[in-house]
Amino acid sequence: MEWLQETYLTYQSTLGYIGLNALLALSVYTTLSCGQLALSSAGFAAIGAYAASILTLNFGQSFPVALLAATALPMLVAVPLGLPVLRIRGVFLAIATIAFGEVVRLGLVNWDYVNGAQGLVAIPQKTSVWMIYLAVALALLLLARLRGSKWGFALEAIREDEAAARTMGIHTTVYKLAMLVLGAALAGLAGALEAHYSFMVAPNGFGFVRVVDMLVFAVVGGTVAYYGPVVGAAFLTVLPEVLRELAPLVGIEPGPLRFLVNGVVLLSVILFLPNGIVSLPARLRERRRARSVTA
Amino acid sequence: MSGQQVINGLFLGSIYALFALGYTLVFGVLDILNLAHAAVFMLASFVALTLVASAGLHILLALPLAVLVAGLLGLVLERVAFRPLRGRADSNISGLISSLAMAAIFEAIAHEIWGPNVARFPFGTLTDKQLHVLGGVVSRLQLTIIGVALGLFLVLWWLVQRTRLGREVRAVAESPRAARILGVDVDRAIAASFFISSALGGAAGVLFGLAFNSVSPDMGRSVELKGLAVIILGGMGSMTGAVLAGFALGLVEVFVVAHLGGSYRDAVSFATLFLILVLRPRGLFGAPSLREA
Amino acid sequence: MRFAGRMSLAVIVALAFAAPASAKQTVKIGAALSMTGPAAAYGANQKVGIQAAVEEINKSGALKDVVLEAVIEDDASTKEQGIAVFQRFINKDRVAAIIGPTLSNTAYATNPLAQQAKVPVVAVSNTAPKGITDIGDYIWRVSLTEGQVIPGALKTLQGKLGFKKAGVLYGNDDAFTQAGYTVMKSALADLKIEVVAEQTFAKPDRDYNAQLTSLLALKPDILVVSALIENASGIVAQARQLGWTGPIFGGNGFNNPVLIKNAGPAAEGVYVGTAWNRSSTDEANTKFLASMKARGVDPDQFATQAYVGVLVVAEAIKQAGNKGGRDDIKAGFAKVMSLSTPLGKFSFLPNRDGDHTPAVQVVKDGKFQILQ
User: Fold this and answer.
1) CB neighbour burial string for B218-257, b if at least 16 within 10 angstroms, e if fewer
2) CB nearest to B137's CB, from C198, C230, C242
3) Residue B116's closest chain C neighbor by CA?
4) B182 found inside a domain
5) Is residue A145 within 8 angstroms of chain B, CB to CB?
6) Residue from C36, C51, C85, C198 to probe the interface with A (highest A Cβ count within 10 Å)
7) How many contacts, defined by CB atoms under 8 Å, are there between A and C?
8) Strand order in the sheet with C339-341
């Protein structure tokens, strides 16, 4: 029992961050599910985190109100952002949204009201781990309901061939925009939850590196299934802690070699498991079947 | 803007242009963002530094060797991170990620070998001299770098426009399938563009390290995203565009610093990038891109 | 290495059950350092300082039966991993005290956890003027804030050089350099020094020519710079190249041998307001420098402050009667008075911030020298 409690306390924050990273990964996945690589999630998470923190710190608002605002504000920003940007395709969309994220970050760096690079500190801890997982569960539920619905088919059609989907009378822009707005909501919510989990927010937490992390979570987990990003976020959030445990056993000191392992794992998944970790069971089954056939 | 600021802008621009030249080549051919370009840039700088500082080579010998190493790293990149993904439906996303993974690996290796501190080339690696032009100061090294950027552009332009290899690369950029039908060895052409691209990135890295006397595992960060802006402004895959856009961005940034202040510089750069993408996705310098995006 | 540490701990624990109460007692100190990520260079130096101090204290036998053991973990310069490391130290390694984390921005996220768990923390590199020791009574700080160093240094310097107009250059995307700038700005205002212009750069930048050109065009008497060492040597070198021969003033970020190594002759005439006077001839400092030299390390301020962090923890243990419990150490901190350290005589202020005499150094003949 005591062991269990110790383990829980030790990995409590890892547990929390698995959920937060899962939400962020899902926010990238929403647009990926209709074939669009939008990397605006760090910007949206920043907007959500700052909006919520300003509300609780400076205006004494309750946490639910702050969370609501943190979810709504990025959605409002996503509409005027998405309308022009979603006409751009492929890597260009990715670059345009990276630029958006950088502009948000630089705006915060230059905004004295929120202390610039030093960020907002002494934010009350209001987020519990269960709230994070409730949010993840709701997001998954929503995405699961989409699958197999008229919406889901439309998204799949756009992902497969956007031009053909348009010819079929699907309003591609509406669908793409809706997914961007949904992703913005998830990112904003995650940002607000994180801010009230880790006592502080600063602009450097929302840079290019962070959004790349989110994309990596989603792709490593697998974007063929809606739960893939969650699996990816869990795997990659736990990985550093596992390495922390293993490194001394093989005589590696804390330092750059841990990053090397990260890179190698990422590369291996991309090369050998193109559909992400969630495709692993199917792959193994396939291989076993192949072996039994040859035997 | 004072003469000195114009010099500053041209110098900064030449750094951007150098970095972007190789970046845009792979982008134009494969439609893939090679995010490990900045890591190759960094590794080449370290290789040159080691050759000069530890092996005692002259920089004029170390530079081509480091560039060669960078080119070979490009081949490794292509072989390990890009070729296996070719033909996948989402190859531009998965390629982006595998190049990120390679960047992480390269950076960790550099960090392990050379440590995290900022290193510099030994004093006197290049005998430098101050010159006075346009009412400002410029070092001979800075002029050399501006010259090398333009020179490499001309070499690359000749290579791509005037040689057989260049024709093949352009054919692959247009349509790999058509190129194959026409008898082009597509694998070879792509590998060649990676070699050239990374060699250029390596040259940029060595010159950057010399110019700022600053070599560190994270030195690519300052040009990584700016390089992206440059290749977009210049028009995808357009080398002329990349060079013009590199100089343009350098001058604009210096202008913003001089008249609005440094804190607006990056915001202006990225806002411009954003607007260009929305309003004119083919880039500022309208060189019709090789292929519709 | 840590594995070996764990093994010996197991042996010690086993012995403790068998042997009488006088057996050795191991006190673990967790160190959350940035060994990777943007602050990796600092974490590497801090690690050297911590390991040296632990070895020396154990060898000296000053703590009688108490043996110190450093548990060093990488926080990857992020708050996410910083939090994970702290929870590990608190609940799994059960450390008696924590040194770190390297960055102030990480400390804001991690230190409340230590405060909740009542584990004493010694900050050895957090220099943000506000909000670190304010977190609670378990949070102590060795590193002087920029607010404790810069105003005095600028005043001393103005007395010597008599400048009236300053050009200010600072990194605005980094918590440390931005905080340093805020302090410099108010110190300059207090001294009635006119600021001709302010310019900023970003941490990844390596080219500062544009900013420097526009500052120098306004003919200041001095350049006041808030920068980390990655940027500092480049700024100094480029200012000199643009023809600036006047004084350059920097804060704690400049107090690093790398400045002289990378800027070379350009560093001559750079004035540095710092917590650590590296040319001090105090015995504690000369001994420290000799010990670092024996390890082949040219220490910077980060290594020194981390080293002192361990000394302070050891002194707290001694003050508590050679007891290494969490509350023993916390209570011991309050009794640390005029401890001899490489930083000078060290005590804590009532608000748990560190207190010792800062210094103004000048680079002369390729060396940091105390400003006479």
Assistant:
1) bbbbbbbbbbbbbbbbbbbbbbebbbbbbbbbbbbbbbbb
2) C242
3) C41
4) yes
5) no
6) C36
7) 103
8) C339-341, C344-348, C354-355
H-run or E-run covering C249 = strand C248-250
Q: Which of A27, A145, A166, A144 is nearest to A87 (CA)?
A: A166
Place of tokens 């992400």: A276
**Nearest alpha carbon to residue B238 among B165, B153, B151:** B153
**Confidence band, pLDDT 50/70/90 cuts, at residue B1:** low
DSSP for residue A253: P
Coil, strand, or helix at residue C297?
coil
CB half-sphere exposure, A261, CA atoms < 13 A: 15
* Residue B52 counted as domain residue: yes
User: How would you write C114-177 as a 3-class SS string?
Assistant: HHHHCCCEEECCCCCCCCCHHHCCCEEECCCCHHHHHHHHHHHHHHHHCCCEEEEEEECCCHHH
Please report which helix (H) or strand (E) contains residue B242, including its range: helix B239-259
Q: Tell me the pLDDT tens digit for each residue of B243-288.
A: 999 999 999 999 999 999 999 999 999 999 999 999 887 777 654 4
pLDDT in tens, A60-101: 999 999 999 999 999 999 999 999 999 988 888 999 999 999
Is B212's Cβ below 8 Å from some Cβ in A? Answer: no
> Which chains share 3+ C-beta pairs under 8 angstroms with B?
A, C
* Exposure b/e, A237-266, CB count within 10 A at least 16 = b: bebbbebbeebbeeebebbbbbbbbbbebb
- Map out the domains of chain C with their CATH numbers: 2-144+281-355 (3.40.50.2300), 147-274 (3.40.50.2300)
If we measure between CA atoms, which residue out of C156, C171, C121, C170 comes closest to residue C141?
Answer: C121
**Strand pairing partners for C367?**
C364
- Tell me whether C40 touches chain B (CB under 8 Å): yes
Please compute, for residue C216, the number of CA atoms within 13 A of its CA located in the half-sphere on the CB side.
24
Distance from C-alpha of A118 to C-alpha of A240, rounded to nearest angstrom: 26
Mean of the per-residue pLDDT values of chain C: 91
Q: Does B144 touch chain C (CB under 8 A)?
A: no
The model's pLDDT over A248-274, given as tens digits with 9 standing for 90+, comes to 787 777 677 777 888 898 899 989 998
Token look-up 């943190």 returns A70
Whichever domain contains B25, its CATH number is 1.10.3470
ipTM above 0.90, yes or no: yes
- Interface check for B278 against chain A (CB to CB < 8 A): the answer is yes
Cβ–Cβ of C79/A205 closer than 8 Å? yes
Q: Contact, C34 vs C102, CB < 8 A?
A: yes
The DSSP code sequence of A28-91 is: HHHHHTTT-----HHHHHHHHHHHHHHHHHHS---HHHHHHHHHHHHHHHHHHHHHHHTTS-HH
Whether B49 is covered by a domain: the verdict is yes
Distance, CA of A9 to CA of A31 (rounded, Å): 35
- The whole-number pLDDT of residue A113 equals 96
Cβ distance C261 to B120 less than 8 Å, yes or no, reads yes
Q: Which residues pair with C348 in a beta bridge?
A: C354
B111 interface with C at CB cutoff 8 Å:
yes
Does A85 reach chain B within 8 Å, measured CB to CB? yes
Gap from B258 CA to chain A (nearest CA, Å): 17
In a domain, B289, yes or no: no
Chain A neighbors of B270, CB-CB under 8 A: 99, 102-103, 106
Which two three-digit tokens encode residue B277? 């993408």
Radius of gyration from C-alpha coordinates of chain A: 20
Distance in angstroms (rounded) separating the CA atoms of residues B120 and A201: 35
Domain count for chain B, please give it: 1
- The pLDDT tens digits of the residues spanning C152-185 come to 999 999 999 999 999 999 999 999 999 999 999 9
Structural domain for B219, as ranges: 3-118+132-279
CB atoms within 10 A of CB C167: 27
